[in-house]
Amino acid sequence: MTHPFLPRFGRRVFFYGGCIIVAVAFLLMMASGHPGHAGQNAPDNTAVVKLAGPRTVAVRAGSLLEQKLDISTVPKDQITTPLLLATGSVVAHLAPGSNPSEDRWQFNSIELSGVYADWQRARAEKEFNIKRLEKIRQLTAAQTHSQKLVVDRLRKLVATGTEAIRDLTAAEANLLQVQLEGQKAVYEAETALTVATRNRAALERTLLQDGVDPSLLENATSGTSLIKADVPELKINLVSVGQACVTKFYGLPGQSFIGKVKSLAPALSAEQHTLRVFFELPDPDNKFKPGMYAEIGLGTDPRMAILVPSDAILHSRNADFVFIGDGPERWKITEVLVGESIGDRVEILQGLKGGEKIIGNGAILLKPMLVQALLNEDIAREMQPEGVKE
């Protein structure tokens, strides 16, 4: 799986990959002293850089290597830049007008328009069956009550000897028939309602899969466009209902439109394993044509963020790491979760709290130590006896 942060450093990764050997040679050269003075001075056996413990690197103070490291303190700043960027598009637009909304919806595909029409019919069928069931229940109750009155009257007359017993028996049989026919009619009406409800629910799931939230279709006002965004599975924990977002359409350069996340799909899309995020934008001038693509920034609410230089991030084994100060001459290899780039800085979502001392420019010179530290961890795990847990 490709790490979501790797594309922003693609060029650098290829370059650094070719330079790791050179970096190792450079570090070894500094550890052994300058060649030009080898005959004049005793060699310095103190390593310039070395692993001083699990995920801990020691860099000799005052060395040439240390002078090449740009060390700074991690700040916390209030920002409104998007927490993450996602691609999206306009899926539907409700044009202004006096006609019923069913006739004014415009969709980005014929298939979606057909599903919407089927969903409307399913809604009408459900509403019809709800009313039908209620009427059948009322009719059954009235017929049963009427027949019971007949039976009760005949029982009194039979008791006084003014009516024959066969008339009472016939009335009681009619009562049973009315009850059975009523139960059958109610059952058939309930079954029809259940089928209509299931059909409507199935069509609602189809609408969600096609990029439209049915609740937004029902509650949208005239001149509104419905937008969907697709968020990668690895970042779905960064989105939530009510989150502010900004939309920039490729067809409307230089313009930004503000909205809020209205709802999230209940499941990931089967094709791309992305989470559908739904929101709406006012569009009285019909600028947003169904099918238009957009770049959507999610999470633009003001927040305190931790920003570090892009050069401070080192990528290895589908993870990102930084070096933070851990005492004199000591640097701790720390795994972090990165967000979006903001100029020449990157937002850190997890792993740092702010205020740490960090290596920025020059951190790449220590990447051989990072690789070796991770390799040592692998070797240590392999050497553990079976059944031993860390």
Overview of the structural elements:
Helix 4 packs antiparallel against helix 5. The chain contains seven helices and 17 strands. The strands form three sheets. Strands 1, 2, 4, 12, 13, 14, 15 and 16 form an eight-stranded antiparallel beta sheet that branches. The longest helix has 51 residues. The N terminus is likely disordered. By secondary structure, it is α+β, with helices and mostly antiparallel strands.
List keywords for this structure.
disordered N terminus; six-stranded antiparallel barrel; alpha+beta; eight-stranded antiparallel beta sheet; 390 residues
The count of helical stretches stands at 7
Rounded to the nearest angstrom, the radius of gyration is 36 Å
Strand content: 25-35%
Low-confidence stretches: 1-45
* Helix and strand pattern: HEEHEEEHEHHHEEEEEEEEEEEH
Shape label? elongated
Helix content: 25-40%
In total, the number of strands is 17
Task: Please render the helix and strand layout as text.
Blueprint: H1 10-32, E1 49-53, E2 56-59, H2 64-67, E3 71-73, E4 76-79, E5 84-94, H3 101-104, E6 105-107, H4 110-160, H5 165-209, H6 214-219, E7 224-232, E8 244-249, E9 257-264, E10 274-282, E11 293-298, E12 303-309, E13 314-316, E14 319-325, E15 330-342, E16 345-350, E17 357-359, H7 367-383
Antiparallel strand pairs: 1-2, 2-15, 3-17, 4-12, 5-6, 5-7, 5-11, 7-10, 8-9, 8-11, 9-10, 12-16, 13-14, 14-15, 15-16
Helix pairs in contact: 4-5
